[in-house]
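Morning F.,

Quick status update on the modeling queue. The single chain you submitted on Monday has been processed. Sequence for confirmation:
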Amino acid sequence: MRSVLLLSDGIDSPVAGYQMGQQGVDLVALHFTTSAGDADSQTDRTVAIINHLEKALDARIVTFIAPHTETLAVLSTECKRNLTCVLCKRMMLRIAGRLAGEVEAAFVITGDSLGQVASQTLSNLFVEEQATSTPILRPLIGMDKVEITNISKKIGTYDLSTCSNIPCSYAPDRPSTHCSLAEAEEEETKVDIESIAGNVRDRMRKIE
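Structure tokens below.
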């Protein structure tokens, strides 16, 4: 079975990919560059993380890199600032769902764990997954940070995931933790969602 792995250069999503890869899932990684001015080093870290995952799983992982900073610039200026994280995740899942259809993947894997701020509260997770009809799997949902960190160290991705302290350039100071679906959809009417998603897909590049 094939899945698209929504892969950041942080600690959680590589572990989520490892957990599902251990179950025999064929992974196709999708990484979105989110830090203005740091896209190249962010991509390099992601590729290095993929190399460790391939060794840990003894499997080849095709990787796609998607430019996301321009999308974040639009969402953070045209929509409610406190919803940037939720709208960002909805866009990522929307594009991941499209890619899943193209590569014949059955679902999308994320590194979400319940209880974290911004995009990973229970209400926001619900709102985000409504952006795609592709099923979302969250293998870390009930795990705490210590458990996730231990696996990250075991598979060799921890040092890479923590070597940079550069945060997302567009994260709001006070992100909403309880966005409603109606509110998110209303904000998305302020921009051309389909055009933005199509543009990102057209500019996505494949690394093998």
